[in-house]
């Protein structure tokens, strides 16, 4: 059976009708949740990793009134995270509070504290969201350490885009594994409305309900997926991005023409090469590499993630996209 949103999409393909359908769905879930007894309410959130994703997650939490602790291993990383947040907040303030940009930014920043002390960061928190390096070992070490430091009711979530949530959760005790899930945000976090909630076989219903409720409270639309490679978005997006690079490698079309084609012919906000540069060629490479292991066990088709010489060459040369000043395109200002 078609879901309401899919049914309405079938009836009309205009963007405004789709947006209206999504908004209706969001408010109907919000109404449902406000009357459904669910897990405990999350008021304090701790985010590990002050990079682009972690900073974005801390920002949207703080903007919706959560008390946020942002933690990373160095003061420099935290300072960088706060800079990302301040820049993004002034962008938001231009629309929400054009007469008092500084006051708006200050008020939101007051909801964020920072620390390099991981144990202290989770002392009294209700939700941990981890957005650190995509290394299973480093993530497992962090969660294993936090398991004994956080209160028993605290929910642990990982923002991993390519690793198994179940394998990360197994670094914690049995009870915490019931309070463990994936919470996958999209870049740029302040602008992208979606959050994927990933349930492992151990994730309890009350954990899932709490995560759904807090996701809505921070103004995002949740979707749910099992713990499978790439979840929903990346499972579809990454093969499309890789196939675009193969097209250029074969000489079928230029990056510029493929971008124009997908923007004007398919209505995507960014063509695949602008998006590859935006996400980072290294990030896409890590995901594809990680999936090659899954292809060996039949979880994903091998052909989808075959290595691509052109991509590997650019990464080797340090051409990682916008952040390095060059990827498929050149950029004056690194982001
Ligand atoms: N902070 C705050 N607000 C921001 C922002 C930021 N960093 N970036 C964009 N915005 C806001 C703008 O202020 C604007 O708000 P408004 O509509 O209320 O005026 C809105 O977002 C649109 O921004 P712009 O007008 O500047 O520019 P565009 O209309 O070109 O949109 C974009 C920019 C939102 C990035 C759009 O191009 C887009 O959606 N691109 C695709 C991004 C995408 O696919 N992301 C997912 C990547 S995959 C991923 O993250 C998964 C991971 O696991 C790899």
Automatic annotation (TrEMBL):
<comment type="pathway">
    <text>Lipid metabolism; fatty acid beta-oxidation.</text>
</comment>
<feature type="binding site">
    <location>
        <begin position="49"/>
        <end position="54"/>
    </location>
    <ligand>
        <name>NAD(+)</name>
    </ligand>
</feature>
<feature type="binding site">
    <location>
        <position position="72"/>
    </location>
    <ligand>
        <name>NAD(+)</name>
    </ligand>
</feature>
<dbReference type="GO" id="GO:0003857">
    <property type="term" value="F:(3S)-3-hydroxyacyl-CoA dehydrogenase (NAD+) activity"/>
</dbReference>
<dbReference type="InterPro" id="IPR013328">
    <property type="entry name" value="6PGD_dom2"/>
</dbReference>
<dbReference type="GO" id="GO:0070403">
    <property type="term" value="F:NAD+ binding"/>
</dbReference>
<dbReference type="GO" id="GO:0006635">
    <property type="term" value="P:fatty acid beta-oxidation"/>
</dbReference>
<protein>
    <recommendedName>
        <fullName>3-hydroxyacyl-CoA dehydrogenase</fullName>
        <ecNumber>1.1.1.35</ecNumber>
    </recommendedName>
</protein>
<dbReference type="Pfam" id="PF02737">
    <property type="entry name" value="3HCDH_N"/>
</dbReference>
<keyword id="KW-0496">Mitochondrion</keyword>
<dbReference type="InterPro" id="IPR052242">
    <property type="entry name" value="Mito_3-hydroxyacyl-CoA_DH"/>
</dbReference>
<feature type="binding site">
    <location>
        <position position="134"/>
    </location>
    <ligand>
        <name>NAD(+)</name>
    </ligand>
</feature>
<dbReference type="GO" id="GO:0005759">
    <property type="term" value="C:mitochondrial matrix"/>
</dbReference>
<feature type="binding site">
    <location>
        <position position="95"/>
    </location>
    <ligand>
        <name>CoA</name>
    </ligand>
</feature>
<dbReference type="InterPro" id="IPR008927">
    <property type="entry name" value="6-PGluconate_DH-like_C_sf"/>
</dbReference>
<feature type="domain" description="3-hydroxyacyl-CoA dehydrogenase C-terminal">
    <location>
        <begin position="230"/>
        <end position="331"/>
    </location>
</feature>
<feature type="binding site">
    <location>
        <position position="161"/>
    </location>
    <ligand>
        <name>NAD(+)</name>
    </ligand>
</feature>
<keyword id="KW-0276">Fatty acid metabolism</keyword>
<feature type="binding site">
    <location>
        <position position="88"/>
    </location>
    <ligand>
        <name>CoA</name>
    </ligand>
</feature>
<dbReference type="InterPro" id="IPR036291">
    <property type="entry name" value="NAD(P)-bd_dom_sf"/>
</dbReference>
<feature type="binding site">
    <location>
        <position position="323"/>
    </location>
    <ligand>
        <name>NAD(+)</name>
    </ligand>
</feature>
<dbReference type="InterPro" id="IPR006108">
    <property type="entry name" value="3HC_DH_C"/>
</dbReference>
<dbReference type="Pfam" id="PF00725">
    <property type="entry name" value="3HCDH"/>
</dbReference>
<dbReference type="InterPro" id="IPR006176">
    <property type="entry name" value="3-OHacyl-CoA_DH_NAD-bd"/>
</dbReference>
<comment type="similarity">
    <text>Belongs to the 3-hydroxyacyl-CoA dehydrogenase family.</text>
</comment>
<feature type="binding site">
    <location>
        <position position="161"/>
    </location>
    <ligand>
        <name>CoA</name>
    </ligand>
</feature>
<keyword id="KW-0520">NAD</keyword>
<keyword id="KW-0443">Lipid metabolism</keyword>
<dbReference type="InterPro" id="IPR006180">
    <property type="entry name" value="3-OHacyl-CoA_DH_CS"/>
</dbReference>
<keyword id="KW-0560">Oxidoreductase</keyword>
<feature type="site" description="Important for catalytic activity">
    <location>
        <position position="184"/>
    </location>
</feature>
<feature type="binding site">
    <location>
        <position position="139"/>
    </location>
    <ligand>
        <name>NAD(+)</name>
    </ligand>
</feature>
<feature type="domain" description="3-hydroxyacyl-CoA dehydrogenase NAD binding">
    <location>
        <begin position="45"/>
        <end position="228"/>
    </location>
</feature>
<dbReference type="InterPro" id="IPR022694">
    <property type="entry name" value="3-OHacyl-CoA_DH"/>
</dbReference>
<feature type="binding site">
    <location>
        <position position="187"/>
    </location>
    <ligand>
        <name>NAD(+)</name>
    </ligand>
</feature>
């Amino acid at each position: 059976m078609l879901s309401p949103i899919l049914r309405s999409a079938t009836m009309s393909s205009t963007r405004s009708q789709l947006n209206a359908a999504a908004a209706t769905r969001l408010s109907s879930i919000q109404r449902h949740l406000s009357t459904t007894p669910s897990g405990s309410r999350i008021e304090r959130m701790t985010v590990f990793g002050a990079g682009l994703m972690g900073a974005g997650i801390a920002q949207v939490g703080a903007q919706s009134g959560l008390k946020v602790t942002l933690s990373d291993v160095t003061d420099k990383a935290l300072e960088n995270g706060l800079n990302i947040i301040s820049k993004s907040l002034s962008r938001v303030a231009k629309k929400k509070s054009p007469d008092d940009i500084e006051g708006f930014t200050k008020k939101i920043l007051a909801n964020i504290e920072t620390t390099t002390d991981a144990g202290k960061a989770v002392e009294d928190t209700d939700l941990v969201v981890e957005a650190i390096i995509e290394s299973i070992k480093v993530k497992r070490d962090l969660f294993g350490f936090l398991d004994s430091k956080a209160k028993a009711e605290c929910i642990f979530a990982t923002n991993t885009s390519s690793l198994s949530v179940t394998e990360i959760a197994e670094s914690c005790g049995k009870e915490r594994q019931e309070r463990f899930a994936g919470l996958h945000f999209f870049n740029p976090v302040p602008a992208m409305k979606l959050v994927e909630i990933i349930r492992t076989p151990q994730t309890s219903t009350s954990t899932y309900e709490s995560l759904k409720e807090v996701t809505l409270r921070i103004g995002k639309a949740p979707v749910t997926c099992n713990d499978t490679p790439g979840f929903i978005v990346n499972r579809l997006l990454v093969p499309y991005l890789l196939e675009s690079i193969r097209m250029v490698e074969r000489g079928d079309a230029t990056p510029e023409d493929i971008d124009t084609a997908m923007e004007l012919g398919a209505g995507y906000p960014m063509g695949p090469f602008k998006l590859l540069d935006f996400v980072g060629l290294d990030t896409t490479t890590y995901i594809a590499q990680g999936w090659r292991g899954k292809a060996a066990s039949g979880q994903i088709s091998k052909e989808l993630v075959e290595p691509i010489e052109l991509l590997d060459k650019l990464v080797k040369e340090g051409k990682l996209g916008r952040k390095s000043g060059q990827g498929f395109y050149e950029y004056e200002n690194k982001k």
